[in-house]
Structure formats: structure tokens, C-alpha cells
Amino acid sequence: xxxxxxxxxxxxxxxxxxxxxxxxxxxxxxxxxxxLIATVPDMGAAEAERAVLMADKAFGQWKKTTAKHxxxxxxxWFDLIVEHxxxxxxxxxTEQGKPYSEAYGEVLYGASFIExxxxxxxxxxxxxxxxxxxxxxxxxxxxxxxxxxxxxxxxFPIAMITRKVGPALAAGCTVVIKPGEDTPxxxxxxxxxxxxxxxxxxxxNIVTTxxxxxxxxxxxxxxxxxxxxFTGSTPVGKHILAQAADTVKKVSMELGGNAPFIVFDxxxxxxxxxxxxxxxxxxxxxxxxxxxxxxxxxxxxDEFMARYLEAVAAMKIGAGLEKGTDIGPLINARAVSxxxxxxxxxxxQGAVLxxxxxxxxxxxxxxxxxxxxxxxxxMDIAHxxxxxxxxxxxxxxxxxxxxxxxxxxxYGLAAYFYTESNSRIWRVSEALEYGIVGIxxxxxxxxVAPFGGVKESGCGREGSRxxxxxxxxxxxxxxxxxx
Length: 483
Hints:
Blueprint: E1 11-13, E2 16-18, E3 25-29, E4 36-41, H1 45-62, H2 67-83, H3 85-96, H4 100-120, E5 127-129, E6 136-144, E7 147-151, H5 159-171, E8 174-178, H6 184-196, E9 204-206, H7 212-221, E10 225-231, H8 234-245, E11 250-254, E12 259-263, H9 269-281, E13 291-297, H10 301-313, H11 333-348, E14 352-355, E15 370-373, E16 390-396, H12 399-407, E17 414-418, H13 422-431, E18 436-439, E19 458-459, E20 472-480
Parallel strand pairs: 7-8, 7-10, 8-9, 10-11, 12-13, 12-17, 13-16, 15-16, 17-18
Antiparallel strand pairs: 1-2, 3-4, 5-6, 6-20, 11-19, 14-15
Helix pairs in contact: 1-7, 2-4, 2-5, 2-6, 3-4, 3-6, 4-5, 7-8, 9-10
């Protein structure tokens, strides 16, 4: 990483590595041990506005490039990411905490969006519309929307950037990125590789800050920004929507979730346990599609829970770079405090602790993989996004009842269920009010399928052939040709 200088301590605006105007910096710590990794510029409104103006300036030329040219640059960026996957994964684990194997998987997953949209750049087709009058011809073309603000979280600090920047650049847009305050180094490393790939100055810009509200307000209200893509919590997403409304920007919102995981009585119990473990404890439970509510049918409850608790007990807690680690640290002390509070309140309200329930002796930011049973919908924990390694277990005996309980939430991002019945697969899939449904599968994310939610989990889709559409405007051309 030192030879390549992937660890950057400056932000990137208009093709230049720059400091904050006032020289301020903010630290980036390793969540596993609290050690300082690096410092990055602590920027504010002035730098954010400058980044927007430079992106707008670059847009004038970038939008004129051919789709084939943009595809070639994106492919070069993809190749560099894959070539340096080990360095990036090591940096990701050091900065964010997840186990190295998961970090490496994220790097390749993130790279896949650059490759996918390099290919999709050449497929933003328009239409010829049959004319209503003989003297006219009707056509549509698709053009880039303009400058895009990409506001990304800390839990997937590489993939959440590429999932936005890939389609934006493929469409001909330019981008200003504001990465998560806890994980700016992965974003800066990606941009370093984009620079090496030959992506022109001003096309990709990155503003680092410890003041997300100040920088975010500029990105969400500036008239030169024509689209905002945000991944994060629902309350923050609602605030961003309100800010973007004044200038009627296009928005993509990938917000919070409260994912149910339903295990029916005809499920393959071994596969269901395996799917539930990965869907719950990946990234120490810090994902928006993590299982929040585990519903288990009464007929198989005892057998399922015995095998589930055995699997939880076998998980290794440790630093992400240690061999065999399954559960890494939570991102910061605030995250630990939140999880502690959720578990404590659930126990006060009648939940029963079946495993874990406390901070691990491995370190102050490591929380034990926890299982709470006898949970019901009167408890606060049933209605909150947990974002930690905590399973809440509910019992059920009726298909319609569990569907109604699963849907009884303002969120609608991901849901999961296990069954061996083909007819039930269709009934339940269509009845669940979620944008993504995993059926006999605990890992659902891929670049080739659309990712996004309904209700208060957001709007728009990322990935797949649909993912580039939010970065394009449709223009109708009415041509008079005479008769």
C-alpha cells in the first residue's frame, strides 16, 4: 500500500490531492484496537461547493465523450481494483473492522459494479415511436442528468461507492463523493486507482469531513447538483429528500431495513440455519439487509434453535486480520452503546437471553454474537434496525399470520424465508412487502440484479440494467419532415 500510496491523507478535487482550506484534519482509527491509521482533511462548505463547481465544469466535456470511451476507462479502473484487491481488502479491514475474507469479497463485489456499468454504458438506448401524424417523426434519446452527489456509509466503504459512481460515470455524469466519516481511506484509495486508470480531472471528486451535516447540505441544495444518491438511515434520508426537494433533484435512497427471516415447518433446517447465520452476522450485523427478526415455526422451533445456538457458539470473535475471525468489532463506541441499550431494554421487556448479550473481553468495541428468544412485537427491539450482532427470535404457527407480522413495519428493504414448497414460494414472495426477497438463500446482493427497497426503505434501484436509469434523463424529439 505504501508503494502504491493507496493510503491517502488528502482529499481529491478537480484532479488535485488537496488539504482543507484551513488545514484542519480529522483522525481515522482502527476499530479493532483504537490505533490511529491516518488523518484526512476535515473539509466544510467551501470545499464542498468548490468540488461541485469543478464537477460541473468537467461535466461539459465528459458528457460529450462516447459511451465506448467511458466504458474503456471504467474497464481500466475495474482491472486496477482487481489487481490490488489484497491491498484494498487489508485497508478495508483495518479501517472498518470486518473480517478479511468479507473485506476481500466486498472489494470484488465493488469492482463488479464498475465492470457491469462499463458494459451498460453502451446500452442506454433511445426509442423510435410510431408517429401519430404523417408529417412528424418521434424519437427519444437518453442523456446524463448532470453532477451527482454520492453520500455513502461506513459499513461497505468500497461497494457503496462503486454502486453509485459506476453507473454515474457510465451515463456521462460527474460525481462528488462524501464518504462515511469513519471510513474515508477506502474511498480515497478507490479514487487514486480511478486517477491511475485515466479518468479525467473533475469527473470524480471526494470531500472528506467530520461535519457531514455541513457538507451534506451543500451537496443536497446546490443548484448545480442534479442528482443525490444516498445510502444510510431512514431519518437522514428523509432529511436529504427535504433538502433536495427545493431544487427538484433526482434522488436515489437506499435506507434502513427491518428484515424478517421466516423458517417454515417444511424448510431444510440445516440450510435455514446456515442462511440465517450469514444473513444475520455478516459484518457483525452491520448491514441494512441483515436479518433483524427471525420467525421460526412452532413445529421445528426446538430443533432449529438447538442447531442455531450451536452455530452461534462456534463463531470466533476477533480482529479482522486474524485468521478464522467470524465477528469483528463494531464501528465505534456509539454503535456499541446502541446495541447494549437495545439488548438491555429487550430483557427488561421480557425477552430471554439465550446467547451472548455483552461486550466481549476481546476488546471494548467487540460485542458478543447474541440471541434473544421469546421476543414479541410489543417490545421496542422488534421495530428498530439493530445494526449489531443480535438475533431476535419470534415463534409462529400460521403462514398468513407470519406474513402480516413480517409486513408490520414501515421498512421494506429485504426479507428472507425458507420452505420446500413451490406453491408457498410464490404465495409468500408476492405477499411480502419488500424490494428484495431471499428464498432459501441468505446472500442476496449481486451487481446483475436490482437492489433497493419500498416504503420507508427508499426509492430507486442500484445495480442491474435498471441501475443506470436514475442517472439519465429521457428527451423526446419531435421531428417535422413534411409529407
